[in-house]
Inverse folding.
């Protein structure tokens, strides 16, 4: 009998070992990592398929398609997804039941007094049995933490989109500033040439030409500054997407939405505010964290009740087979009833509740700040638009006077230069209004003036990226 028992153990042991997972080495290599990043491109077929699955066959690279590219490439989104995968893996761990343990104790008797076999083979099986629903509470806690991690993936996407929108707006502003600076420089160069001609025939003094030359030098510096800003904005935009700046070479970026005056007064801010205070992903993530602390507290309360350890055993001695149901080991709650860990779990639950209310309060303040900024910029935008209309009327009047012979070409050039200056001032206010809109969108976690919906963005966020 003892040989049959030993044979069973020897047979089962290799099977148990063969079912174990094996380690696979996946080293990180800096050269390969840099090569992968530098190979990122907006023409990537997998990226195009990802965008197609979200919004269909959309050709232009506007804020929405660039948002999807950032979801696909950006490391912040990838990190949030990796954390969600780690949390999801913890559900399996939480659901695992404790393995039994087997003990084999062969004993050899060196001074045996009889002719019997000098061996005693004893074995025991220790079977842990969890009580009070502890496994269910562990699973519930892990599931809530996984839900929180998934919601934080969506929130990471909104943070990335907010930075991307501001980077794209900066690119638009830099490009327009460079264009207007070039326009002013071209006009001032013509003015300078005409003043030189007038100085040559004695119509003006050298002081007027000197003023023009100084203005020309300043405009040349402005152009160079604008060109530097434009180059830096492309780098900022590439970083916001998660690609190298070379990936934007030859790509026609659609920034037309920034050129229009946003109708800020038509925004249903009160309704969007209520939605944000109930449905922002980071708020929902904290609610999931709170549910996890509830399950953690239930688990620690359940841990007051001891688990059971069943210990059946078998012994072969002098040809006799001895079977025993074994003793049942129960931890005695004499020194404590798990009060410490229960107190920690209760404190953690209170902490998460405070965090939730603090986040709601911060969101309220951010929305109110965005609303105040919008109210202020609406008035500035109206003033800038009125100045632009007045300058256009003035330019038209000078053109009519030139046709009638009552004004010269220099007067028209001066009016055109003044018009470009007013246009630049209007651009600054327009960019400020778009910044206010970006702040509001980022605070609400809601796409404004966008073909994407919040549902589309959140669904795209949970998809796998490289």
């Amino acid at each position: 009998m003892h040989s049959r028992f030993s044979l069973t153990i020897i047979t089962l042991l290799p099977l148990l070992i063969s079912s174990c997972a094996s380690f696979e080495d996946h080293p990180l290599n800096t050269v390969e990592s840099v090569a992968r990043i530098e190979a990122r491109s907006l023409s990537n077929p997998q990226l195009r398929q990802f965008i197609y699955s979200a919004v269909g066959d959309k050709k232009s690279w506007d804020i929405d398609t660039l948002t999807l590219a950032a979801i696909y490439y950006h490391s912040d989104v990838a990190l949030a997804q990796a954390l969600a995968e780690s949390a999801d893996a913890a559900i399996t761990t939480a659901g695992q039941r404790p393995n039994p343990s087997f003990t084999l104790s062969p004993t050899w008797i060196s001074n045996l007094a009889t002719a019997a076999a000098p061996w005693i083979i004893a074995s025991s099986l220790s079977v842990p049995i969890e009580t009070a629903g502890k496994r269910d509470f562990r699973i519930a806690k892990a599931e809530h933490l996984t839900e929180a991690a998934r919601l934080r993936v969506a929130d990471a996407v909104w943070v990335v989109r907010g930075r991307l929108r501001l980077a794209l707006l900066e690119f638009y502003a830099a490009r327009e500033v460079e264009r207007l600076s070039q326009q002013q420089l071209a006009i001032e160069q013509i003015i300078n040439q005409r003043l030189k001609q007038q100085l040559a025939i004695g119509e003006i003094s050298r002081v007027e030409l000197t003023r023009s030359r100084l203005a020309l030098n300043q405009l040349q510096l402005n152009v160079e500054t604008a060109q530097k800003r434009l180059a830096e904005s492309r780098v900022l935009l590439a970083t916001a997407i998660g690609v190298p700046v070379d990936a934007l070479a030859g790509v026609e970026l659609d920034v037309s939405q920034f050129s229009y005056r946003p109708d800020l007064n038509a925004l249903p801010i009160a309704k969007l505010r209520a939605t944000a205070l109930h449905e922002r992903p980071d708020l929902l993530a904290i609610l999931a964290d709170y549910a996890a602390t509830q399950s953690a507290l239930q688990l620690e309360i359940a841990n007051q009740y001891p688990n059971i350890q069943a210990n059946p055993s078998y012994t072969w001695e002098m040809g006799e087979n001895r079977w025993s149901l074994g003793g049942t080991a129960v931890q005695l709650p004499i020194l404590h009833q798990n009060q410490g860990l229960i107190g920690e779990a209760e404190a953690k639950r209170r902490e998460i509740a405070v965090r939730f209310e603090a986040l709601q309060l911060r969101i309220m303040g951010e929305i109110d700040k965005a609303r105040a900024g919008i109210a202020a910029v609406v008035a500035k935008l109206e003033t800038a638009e009125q100045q632009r209309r007045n300058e256009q009327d003035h330019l038209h009047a000078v053109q009519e006077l030139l046709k009638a012979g009552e004004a010269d070409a220099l007067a028209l050039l001066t009016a055109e230069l003044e018009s470009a200056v007013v246009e630049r001032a209007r651009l600054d206010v327009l960019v400020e209004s778009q910044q206010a809109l970006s702040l509001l969108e980022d605070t609400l976690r809601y796409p404004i003036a966008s073909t994407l919906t919040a549902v589309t963005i959140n669904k795209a966020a949970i998809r796998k990226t490289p």
The chain has one domain: 50-109+117-461. The domain at 50-109+117-461 is CATH 1.20.1600.10 (Outer membrane efflux proteins (OEP)). The first helix runs from residue 2 to 18.
